[in-house]
Design brief:
The complex is a heterodimer.
Chain A lengths: L4 E2 L10 E12 L2 E2 L5 E6 L2 E6 L6 E5 L3 E7 L7 E7 L18 E6 L4 H14 L1 H4 L14 H57 L6 H13 L6 H6 L4 H20 L3 E3 H12 L6 H9 L8 E5 L5 E5 L4 H15 L2 E2 H8 L3 H13 L3 E6 L2 E6 L1 H4 L2
Antiparallel strand pairs in A: 1-6, 2-3, 2-4, 2-9, 4-5, 5-6, 7-8, 8-9, 10-12, 11-12, 13-15, 14-15
Chain B lengths: L22 H21 L4 E3 H6 L4 E2 L4 E2 L2 H14 L2 E3 L6 E4 L4 H14 L6 E3 H6 L13 H13 L3 E6 L2 E6 L1
Antiparallel strand pairs in B: 1-5, 2-3, 4-5, 6-8, 7-8
The chains are: A alpha+beta, B alpha+beta.
């Protein structure tokens, strides 16, 4: 900003007006300054800014002071801008609004638009450099024909300085933004430590606290996302909560299971149950723990884990082993089947279809053909044929 | 030769070329492979083979069916044969093997029976005479390869029914 000089605003002889635009605000680097509403004039020699409210306030920069210009497109709530990078002020510069400043660039904000045309004209003037050919009075003939070597060095250094400043600015902004987060994390750590110590105290002084209170406390912990291994150790494989949940599940799942042939994968159950609940969703751990209690509570469903690790919920009345017999028939009819083909024929999910075929293989009814063509199951002729 | 060989039904059954995970099924499968290998080698008069040859041979590679038994499974079949006494590794790297469709003890028994029948106990024979002599033309062990013959005689030697000796132009055997 120290490159500006006060001026009357009148054009000199040989200086012609190129374009002017109202509603322009000047920024010193990234900072807003008091020059917020003015008319910006571009002449062949200078960039002049005159305050709209106070016409006496008028300042200018010779175009020769400009290193290069950039466009900054408009954003939400932000006007389009032109960024003007400047050479350092010459030592014999005349008076201006600022004697010194740290920034080597200014921004012109076009609050009433007009940036595109202005930029175009300014670029043209920068290219044509008409001020070099049409000398005007000494006062602003400062950097008229600078030596190429010197200018280039200054120019590049100026650009580098500007980039460095921008980087520092960005870093500062980011650090400020994350300061709050680090403070939060410190607090959270303290909280976790506290709840852990309380939980341990409970573990040690079992008798002093009632079961209900402990459960409540633990559910608070859980709702904050802090799982407590003490639960499983103290109560074995289930808690009151899980038992209630198991009974609830038996109610919810009866009908869907019947619709699906008596068997569903645990992931299907998870989705179904949580969709039905809407709020207060179940965690996978809670679901599994509740399901583990189904058989013990003599409910009409049970949890079954296949060799592959796949978990399903079956109706007690469902006999997967019997389904195997019908699977064998289906496979025999078709000669051989892949899991996908079988799933499609029977109307099952591929996951459960595969489990059924694998069970049939385990029981010796089917054998497998594993090749680049895929995995196919055949009736086990090794056993049935001599 | 290959055309007169009758492949068993398993050879046209794709699962035959996949090692079965079910233990009982696998037992049946391996038994079928063992007998196939022995009958194949017997018909083709093949007494020894390398693993590489085996991989590409129609024995383990059914081109028409587009199935091959993978090399790890071939190794398992060969190990089964070794355990049964029908196979012997010829090198430490297990890259080539001797395959005997009859176990050496069985051959030994047949030879000894012939020797006794023809009243030739206490006689000495050259190895060549035994397998290629006129007298043995009708015997099963006629044309037997030397490696297998030697092992058969070694088995008899263990039972003190024979002794392998060195004679002028090679080896021979004396029966007791």
């Amino acid at each position: 900003m120290d490159r500006f000089v006060w001026t009357s605003g009148l054009l000199e002889i040989n200086e012609t007006l190129v374009i002017q635009q109202r509603g322009v605000r000047i920024y010193d680097g990234e900072e807003k300054i008091k020059f917020d509403a003015g008319t910006l004039l571009l002449s062949t020699h200078r960039l002049i800014w005159r305050d709209q409210k106070n016409h006496e306030c008028c300042m200018a920069i010779p175009l020769s002071q400009i290193v290069f210009i950039e466009e900054q497109s408009a954003g939400i709530g932000k006007s389009a801008k032109i960024v003007v990078h400047l050479h350092p002020a010459p030592p014999n510069k005349e008076l201006g609004p600022f004697q010194s400043c740290k920034n080597s660039y200014i921004k012109l904000s076009f609050k009433e638009h007009g940036q595109i045309e202005f930029y175009r004209r300014l670029s043209e003037e920068m290219t044509q450099r008409r001020w070099e050919n049409m000398p005007v009075s000494q006062s602003f003939q400062t950097n008229r024909g600078p030596q190429p070597g010197r200018i280039r060095a200054v120019g590049i250094v100026g650009i580098e300085r500007k980039l460095e400043e921008k980087r520092k600015e960005t870093d500062k902004n980011i650090s400020e933004a994350f300061e709050d987060l680090s403070k939060l994390m410190v607090k959270a750590k303290e909280m976790v430590e506290l709840s852990k110590s309380i939980a341990n105290k409970i573990k040690d002084k079992q008798g002093d606290i009632t079961e209900d209170e402990t459960i409540r406390f633990k559910s608070y912990l859980l709702s904050m996302g802090i799982a407590n291994p003490v639960t499983r150790e103290t109560y074995g494989s289930g808690t009151q909560y899980h038992m209630q949940l198991a009974k609830q599940l038996a109610g919810i799942l009866q009908a869907p299971l019947e619709e699906r042939g008596g068997i569903m994968s645990l992931t299907e159950v998870y989705c179904l149950v949580n969709r039905a609940r809407g709020m207060e969703l179940l965690s996978p751990e809670d679901l599994v723990n509740a399901c583990k209690m189904l058989e013990a509570l003599k409910l009409p469903l049970r949890l079954r884990v296949f060799d592959s690790g796949v978990m399903v919920i079956e109706l007690q009345s469902h006999k997967e082993e019997e389904m195997v017999a019908s699977a064998l028939e289906t496979v025999s009819e078709k000669g051989s089947l892949t899991s996908e083909e079988f799933a499609k024929l029977v109307g099952m999910s591929v996951l459960l279809a595969k489990e059924r075929l694998l069970l049939a293989e385990k029981m010796g009814h089917l054998c497998r053909d594993d090749s680049v063509e895929g995995l196919r199951f055949y009736p086990n002729l090794f056993m049935t044929q001599s | 030769m290959a055309t007169s060989f009758e492949w068993p039904w398993q050879y046209r059954f794709p699962p035959f070329f996949t090692l079965q995970p079910n233990v009982d099924t696998r037992q049946k499968q391996l038994a079928a492979w063992c007998s196939l290998v022995l009958s194949f080698c017997r018909l083709h008069k093949q007494s020894s083979m390398t693993v590489m040859e085996a991989q590409e041979s129609p024995l383990f590679n059914n081109v028409k069916l587009q199935r091959k038994l993978p090399v790890e499974s071939i190794q398992i079949v060969l190990e089964e044969l070794r355990k049964k006494g029908n196979l012997e590794w010829l090198d430490k790297n297990k890259s080539s093997f001797l395959i005997m469709w009859r176990r050496p003890e069985e051959w030994g028994k047949l030879i000894y029976q012939w020797v006794s029948r023809s009243g030739q106990n206490n006689s000495v024979f050259t190895l060549y005479e035994l397998t290629n002599g006129e007298d043995t033309e009708d015997e099963e062990f006629h044309g037997l390869d030397e490696a297998t013959l030697l092992r058969a005689l070694q088995a008899l030697q263990q039972e003190h029914k024979a002794e392998i000796i060195t004679i002028s132009d090679g080896r021979g055997v004396k029966f007791f």
